[in-house]
Write a structure and sequence with these properties.
The protein has 14 helices and 22 strands. By secondary structure, the protein is an alpha/beta fold. It has 2 domains: about 170 residues, Rossmann fold, CATH 3.40.50; about 210 residues, 3-Layer(aba) Sandwich (Rossmann fold). A hairpin with a 2-residue loop joins strand 20 and strand 21. Helix 1 packs across helix 9, helix 4 packs across helix 6 and helix 10 crosses helix 14. It is elongated, with a radius of gyration of 24 Å. Bound molecules: cytidine-5'-triphosphate. The site of cytidine-5'-triphosphate has 15 residues, from helix 12 and strand 17. The site of cytidine-5'-triphosphate (CTP) has 15 residues, from helix 12 and strand 17.
Length: about 400
Amino acid sequence: MGQGNRILLIVSGGIAAYKCLDAIRRLREHGFAVRCILTRAGAEFVTPMSLAALSQDKVYEDLFSLTDESGMGHIELSRDADLVLVAPATTNILARMAAGIADDLATTALLATDKPVMVAPAMNVRMWEHAATRANLATLEERGVLRVGPTEGDMACGEWGMGRMAEADDIVAAVEAFFRPKGRLKGRRALVTSGPTHEAIDSVRYLANRSSGKQGHAIAAALARLGADTTLVSGPTGQPDPPGVAVVRVESAVEMLEACEHALPVDAAVLAAAVADWRVADPVVGKIKKKATQAAPTLILTENPDILAALSNGRGRRPKLVIGFAAETDSVVENAVAKRAAKRCDWILANDVSPGTGTFGGDTNTVHLVSADGVEDWPTLTKRAVAERLAERIADSLDQTR
Ligand code: CTP
């Protein structure tokens, strides 16, 4: 996959530096060549020896090294790569990059490079949230610096929150995505559903679930990035509209089905919404007053249409590829296999949404891809990486039907 593309990996000084050792190994397994610059602070966490052994190359540390400069100077080093990756990227190096400071080999190479730069931030949650870090990242992103992670979770300092460096797998996925030919899905149409549905009880109250819409929105964004003409039908979420995606906002399952049918025909449909299975049979117009009801009101529910089954069974206008999700709390894969057969969709992405997993609302997801070919277990990935992997798989599958 890497086809010999060259990565210049800058390792700065954070506890997450240990993860870059695994990232080097995996990048090389994927066919990338890796050369490392280790900052002075980085050398407090990993040794040049480990980096050299894993990258199978010399490790560069010193801006003023005569031997390095006569072999490969900092300018050449910074231009010889196809991508410069800073992992971990500490608050300090991000600040120096944003300010254009060049006071060591790493920052000098970053200033001298004419190649794309990707950062994998790693820091304490307070540092991540600090206005200075926010401003520095905004500056860097405006200049086109790419970013992978961070994620939310336990930190080495004992706190919990955003700032954990992306896992090696996610870094490799982001690097691979960067090198993939763009526009694989040009000329294709895609439909994605996302978020929960709200089912009215009366004019102000509704039934809902905990879906955040993060996964569905990330899938729509990934399909659009590959060039697909993408429609996202979304229930109520706090997610921003993904760039380049036509977003249709709905509230209820009935509205969601109508909007999906309106978006047809499409080549691929990914139904990631957590659609309410039932709605209130007879929602009240206006607000149900407490005093008007002697006892607590009884809600009579009726079944909602199943959008996944409707699209999978849609004669004539069935998308070539219909993909559903299975949100499960027990026997995840078994239930997903049964769900795929019952709903007649092509693939099911099964995920465990039990309370301890943090899938609902969190930034990571552990999925199993169930298809006619069997079950594929994916590692725990960020929702963005799951989306990217899925979009590539959709492109592979549609390529076979051209
Ligand atoms: N789905 C749908 N319309 C519904 C219910 C579910 O399109 N009315 C889709 C979801 O978007 C998802 C898949 O069906 O892609 C499976 O959803 P899930 O909630 O896991 O399954 P259910 O069919 O609701 O079954 P159960 O609640 O019994 O697990």
